[in-house]
Structures are given as structure tokens and as C-alpha cells.
Specification:
It is built from two helices and nine strands; from the N terminus they run ααβββββββββ. By secondary structure, the chain is mainly β. The chain has a single domain, classed as Peptide methionine sulfoxide reductase (Metal Binding Protein, Guanine Nucleotide Exchange Factor, Chain A). A hairpin with a 7-residue loop joins strand 3 and strand 4. The longest helix has 7 residues. The two termini are 16 Å apart.
Length: 140
């Protein structure tokens, strides 16, 4: 894992679209079926829209029927971090970028084998880097 990327809200607002800022920095959620990655199948790597941190390989993506792109596991154990989320009267596990702490979505224990996990992510929180193209981290 590379060094953490820590920026002020003002710096994040300059770098992100309003929608990206609302999800990544304010823990928002896009509407189901509204995200651009729900039905995509192109080979490559999904990276954090805030910092470019590699998060998920396309081979781990599956159709969950929930309206959000879903994955069975992160690229590496430290690609993401997990936190207990008690918002909206529920207890869930929030998933954040392991590098910039941006909110990505939630993980649920109802996914397919072999992990049994469903990393349910917001499309706006990620970018897709096609297979064969270099991954680039955003720096200060």
C-alpha cells in the first residue's frame, strides 16, 4: 500500500465532481441502477475515483440484481478498509478506499462462492481502467 492521501474538503471539492464529492466524502449513495458500471463486463481494474487506488479486478465483478456494481473481493486486503455503519437504523459494514478513506459502498455476507461476500459499490466512487492500460495514483 502506498502512503495515505489526506486532503481538506476544499481540496477534494476542487478535484471531484459534485456527485463524486457527495458519495466519496459525504458517505452518500447513488440511486440503484443509475451507475455507469452496473452492467459493464469490460476487463480491467476498478480504481478509486478520488485517488486512483486499485480496488477491484473486473473478474471479481458479478450481477447481484441490486442495482449497484458488486464484487466478490477487493484486489488486495489493504485496497479497502471496513467500518461499522449504524446509519439509517441499520447495522452494516461500510467499505472505504484504503488510501484516501473515500466512501465506496458496503459489503454484505450474501455473495456467491468462493467468498460469500457482496461488495456493493457506488459507480460514481470508481473509475474503470481497461486491461493493459497503466494504473496511476493521484498525488497531492
Amino acid at each position: 500500500m502506498v502512503d495515505k492521501l489526506v486532503l481538506s474538503d476544499e481540496e477534494w471539492r476542487k478535484r471531484l465532481t459534485p456527485e463524486e464529492f457527495q458519495v466519496l466524502r459525504q458517505h452518500g449513495t447513488e440511486r440503484p441502477w443509475a451507475g455507469c458500471f452496473v452492467g459493464t463486463k469490460e476487463p480491467g481494474t476498478y480504481v478509486c475515483a478520488g485517488c486512483g487506488n486499485p480496488l477491484f479486478k473486473s473478474g471479481e465483478k458479478f450481477e447481484s440484481g441490486t442495482g449497484w456494481p458488486s464484487f466478490t473481493r477487493p484486489l488486495q486486503a489493504d485496497s479497502v478498509t471496513e467500518y461499522q455503519d449504524r446509519s439509517y437504523g441499520m447495522i452494516r459494514t461500510e467499505v472505504r478506499c484504503g488510501r484516501c478513506d473515500g466512501h465506496l459502498g458496503h459489503v454484505f455476507p450474501d455473495g456467491p462462492p468462493p467468498t460469500g461476500l457482496r461488495y456493493c459499490m457506488n459507480s460514481v466512487a470508481m473509475k474503470h481502467v481497461p486491461e493493459g492500460q497503466p494504473l496511476q495514483l493521484v498525488t497531492k
